[in-house]
Design goal:
The protein has about 170 residues and is α+β, with helices and mostly antiparallel strands. About 35% of the residues lie in helices and about 35% in strands. It has a single domain, classed as Gcn5-related N-acetyltransferase (GNAT) (Aminopeptidase), CATH 3.40.630.30. The protein has a seven-stranded mixed beta sheet with strand order 1-2-3-4-5-7-6, sandwiched between helices. Helix 1 packs across helix 3. It is globular, with a radius of gyration of 15 Å. The N and C termini lie far apart (about 30 Å). The relative contact order is 0.16. The model has no long low-confidence stretch (mean pLDDT about 95).
Length: about 170
């Protein structure tokens, strides 16, 4: 079993867009209406939007490979790219997604550790993320990794308002 991480570039645009679409749909399609899912996917993962995010200086994307196959990705934000104003001392993990067939191989932890490494390199004091309050597996994972709930914010899936828990880990 080999695992490695590669930073995404504009050359990865189409692969990133396809993976973003696929992993989000796999993760949440059973808990949301088809209409809201389609609206969200078309808004958040259209080619122009993904290209814009990939070109943002304060955001970075990384693919994780499992036995040389792209298996998931990470998106981190700093400074003004953060989805909430958390200040210059924070790094946001906006997305960690693993394709279903590659889950249960420790890839999420691998990507989370990459985010922590980036935060340390940039002298950030905390790492935070938003996780849907109904995503119990993800919440348990983040708690196991040392994150604690520090707030909440709204997340819109199409026309439905949902609540994301804000979870934070303070770095030493």
């Amino acid at each position: 079993m080999t695992i490695h991480i590669k930073k995404c570039t504009l050359e990865d645009l189409h692969t990133l867009q396809e993976m973003s679409y696929e992993t989000f749909k796999e993760t949440f399609k059973h808990q949301n209406t088809a209409e809201n899912m389609i609206a969200y996917l078309e808004k958040s993962f259209n080619l122009h939007q993904v290209e814009k995010e990939l070109s943002t200086h304060s955001s970075q994307f990384f693919f994780v490979y499992f036995n040389h196959e792209a298996a998931g990705y990470l998106k981190v934000n700093t400074d003004d790219a953060q989805t909430e104003k958390m200040g210059d001392e924070a790094l946001e993990i906006e997305r960690i997604y693993i394709i279903n067939k590659f889950q249960k191989h420790g890839l999420g932890k691998y990507l989370l550790n990459k985010a922590m490494e980036i935060a340390a390199e940039r002298n950030k004091k905390k790492v935070w993320l938003g996780v849907w309050e109904e995503n119990e597996n993800a919440i348990a994972f983040y708690k196991k990794m040392g994150f604690v709930q520090t707030g909440k914010h709204s997340f819109y899936m199409g026309d439905e308002e949902q609540t994301d828990l804000i979870m934070t880990k303070t770095l030493i």
